[in-house]
Amino acid sequence: MGWREDIKVGILRADQIFLGIGNGIESSLGQVSGRATLAQLNAGLVIAAAQPGRAYRPLLVRMRAIGGAVTTCTLVRIMNDTNVVLSNTQASMVQDLWVNEATSGAVSTNINVTGGVNKSLTLDKTGTAATVVTHIDYVVLYQLIVSNLGAN
To answer: How does DSSP assign 9-66, residue by residue?
Structure first.
């Protein structure tokens, strides 16, 4: 079981994915999106809370700067435990441009890599505090995998 063969490239619909794959992995599809303030970006923000006995596998990740370009910090990134899911240089985070793993300036991408069990997804920055930008929009489509299948 897996993806329907007639799915178009670049389009992902929840009704076209088979969940509870017959290889002992039970999973569900989820999505988190929102708008983080500059203060939240600089402090680090949990965008998807840890789920007991489960691990996140990000499938699609997007970010964009709102209110101005990101300046002064080194990277803006979404983390999955210790895995950098997506990080973009501050120079690539211009106002109103959605960035992803294919964007010029993408530094680290671990799309489709399962993070640690009982770990959250976070949005943060590296280096000095980000300035000018007022908000960061983010979208993460993920698979939530049950890691302790069969455990009592």
So the answer is: TT---GGGB--S-TTT-EEEEEEEEEEEEHHHHHH-EEEE---TTEEEEEEEEEEEEE
Query: CATH code at 77?
Result: 2.60.120
pLDDT of residue 81: 85
> Could you tell me which of 122, 115, 110, 121 has the C-alpha nearest to residue 147?
115
Q: Give yes or no for residue 1 having a pLDDT over 80.
A: no
* Residue 114 domain-assigned (yes or no): yes
Question: Does a structural domain hold residue 147?
Answer: no
Q: Tell me how far apart the alpha carbons of residues 132 and 137 are, in angstroms, rounded to a whole number.
A: 15
